[in-house]
Structure formats: structure tokens, C-alpha cells
Amino acid sequence: MKRKNTTGYIKVLSISTSIIAIYIVTQLFTFSAEPIIIVDQAPSFNKDYSIFSLKIPENINFAGEKVPVEKHWVKESLDRELLVNTYWQSQTVLFVKRCNRYFPIIEPILKEQGVPDDFKYLAVIESGLMPRSVSPAGAAGIWQFMKATGIEYGLEINNEVDERYHLEKATVAACKYFKKSYAKYENWTLVAASYNAGKSGISKQLNRQQASNYYNLLLGEETGRYVYRIIALKEILSEPKAYGFHVDSEDLYPVIETQNIQVDSTISNIAGFSKEFNISYKELKDLNPWLRDNKLTNSRKRTYSIQLPANTAMLEKIEPNQITKENIKPSSISKNVPLQTKGLSIN
């Protein structure tokens, strides 16, 4: 009887061991097999995001002068700037937005001064169209004038007034430079290059390398890329959608409508002056970044045109005996409907 029981236990143990062994082998095969990936749950980055090379436009020009893209180094240099500025998306979107605000001010001045419209893109690469831009070397404003050059071309620059930050006056000064440079080179592409390297720098390299145009010059990194970058931004900003930039009209930075008030006396406190017109110090300084202090001493009694928001209730802030209807006239600045008060004295 006892022997029968022992035999039974051995059978049960043998069966149990077999079942466990089969389970273990099954699990080994299960976990060693490749995982099943459901397509819908796979990462979609490669499906939804693509990087494209860019086609170099044919018959491309700068200021009416043909860009010789048939030369491999010209094509590759332009390709580099098109790629950099197309895929530096955040910066180029900002350029698109700012152009809408500042080009309507720059364009008529270039036209009036007889400078090709393409030079507005030079302002973009100089400062990014940031009115208070200052370079490490001290160049200032949208056109990035050095102090000595700004004074040479008629800008007032001192502790209280710095017209390098005055967009209209700085644009006129830049046009004077362009026209003087064109009289020397009779070539707008070299004029643009000289704005970066200086006329003496470009002339030195033309003589040294026995060259006659920008595209055949071996130049340093900055000037060597300078004109190509202008041309690339001209292409992108002229047709932003063609390069993948879609900016809704309501997202563009609008032209700020202003009215001008002419002042030919001292402003002892610009913060107080702002309050007279029910605007903040910041708003007045944003509209007039050329005012560099909290005062305008004006010891020479010059007449300054200060911009105010177009909806400022200016006439309500002026005593009746300080202004007459004859003093009010339209401004010469396009796209604004200003009021000007000649000889106004606010202390």
C-alpha cells in the first residue's frame, strides 16, 4: 500500500515538472521574438517634417545688376545665405513682420533720393530693423552709422540728440553715402559692399586683386557674405510664401500712425512733457528714439519735430494764445496725418 502511494507521488511530480518546463520554454520564445509595432503608434516626425534644398532663382539681380550665378562660387555663396535665412525661421518671421512697419517709411525716401529700392534690404541685415540696435563697435540705429560717419553725413549726435536713431534722417544720410559711393564705383553692388567694408577697404582690394566687381573679390568672412545675404533676404522677403513663411496680415507689425509737433525751445523734463499729452515716457521714447536723455536743452534753438500718437488730443493741452490755425499744416512724411505747431514752448 505504501509503495503504491509513492509511485503516485512520483507520477504527479513528473507531470508537474513537465508542465513547468513547457511554460518556461514557451516564455523564452515569446520574449525573444521581435516586438510587434502598430504603425499608427510609431513616431510621425519623419512623415510630418521635411528639409528641402533650395533652387537658386534664375535671372536674379541686385539693384538691376545681374548676379552671375553661373559662376559656381557665386551660386554656392548665395545658396548658403538662402538656406541660413530660410531655416533660421524665427528671425526671418520677425523680419517679415517688421518690414511691414518700416519699409513704408524707407521706400519713399530711397525713391526721392534716387537710390535703388533694393537698398532697403541692406537695412534689414544691418540692424534687423530694430530702431535701438547698437553694434559692439558702436554703430547705432537701423542703418548702423558709426558716430564719425553719421556726423560726416549730416546727423546731429550728442548726449541728448542722436539722429542715427531717427529713421527718416538716418535714411537720408545713408542715401547720401550710397550716392557718393556710386559716383566712385558706378556699380551698386560695390556700393553695398563698401557700406560694410568702407570705400577705402573695397578700393584697396579691387586694386590688390586687379578685379572690377564684387563677385570676383576674395574678401573676409563678413564682407564676403554681405551682399549675398542682402540678395537672399530680398528673395525671401519679396516672396515669403515661396520659402515657407506664412504670416497672416493681422500678425504683421502695423505702421504706427503719428502726428508731429515742432519744438524750438527747451524741454526740461521729457517725462513731464509726455504727461502733457497723456502718453507714457516709454511711448514717446519709442516713437522718438533719437531723444537720448530726459531733457532737450536745445541751446541753439533748433526746431525739432517730435512724433506723438495720431490720436493724441494735442490741441486740448495747449493754451489758446500759443497756437493759431495758421500754425497747423500737413507733414511732409508720407502715410501720416500729423499736426505741427511751430514755435511751441513747453518747459
Describe the secondary structure blueprint for this structure:
Elements (H helix, E strand, L loop, with lengths): L1 H31 L12 H4 L12 E2 L2 E2 L5 H16 L1 H25 L6 H8 L19 H6 L14 H19 L2 H10 L1 H11 L11 H18 L19 E6 L6 H7 L4 H7 L16 E6 L38
Antiparallel strand pairs: 1-2, 3-4
Helix pairs in contact: 3-10, 4-7, 5-10, 7-8, 8-9, 8-10
Briefly, what is this?
This protein is mainly alpha-helical and 347 residues long. Helices cover 47% and strands 5% of the residues.
Comma- or semicolon-separated keywords:
two-stranded antiparallel sheet, 5% strand, disordered C terminus, Lysozyme, 347 residues
Task: Name the helix and strand elements from N-terminus to C-terminus, one letter apiece.
Answer: HHEEHHHHHHHHEHHE
User: Separation of termini?
Assistant: 126 Å
CATH fold naming of the largest domain: Lysozyme
Number of domains: 2
Structural class: mainly alpha
Radius of gyration: 34 Å
CATH class of the largest domain: Mainly Alpha
How many β-strands, per DSSP?
4
Major β-sheet profile: 2 strands, antiparallel
General description of the model:
The chain has 347 residues and is mainly alpha-helical. It has two domains: 61-251, Lysozyme; 258-327, no CATH class. It is 47% helix and 5% strand. The protein has twelve helices and four strands. The protein has helices at 2-32, 45-48, 72-87, 89-113, 120-127, 147-152, 167-185, 188-197, 199-209, 221-238, 270-276, 281-287, and strands at residues 61-62, 65-66, 258-263, 304-309. The strands form two sheets. A two-stranded antiparallel sheet has the order 1-2. A hairpin with a 2-residue loop joins strand 1 (61-62) and strand 2. Helix 4 (89-113) packs across helix 7, helix 5 (120-127) crosses helix 10 and helix 8 crosses helix 9 (199-209). The radius of gyration is 34 Å and the shape is globular. The termini are far apart. Mean pLDDT is 84; it is low at 315-347.
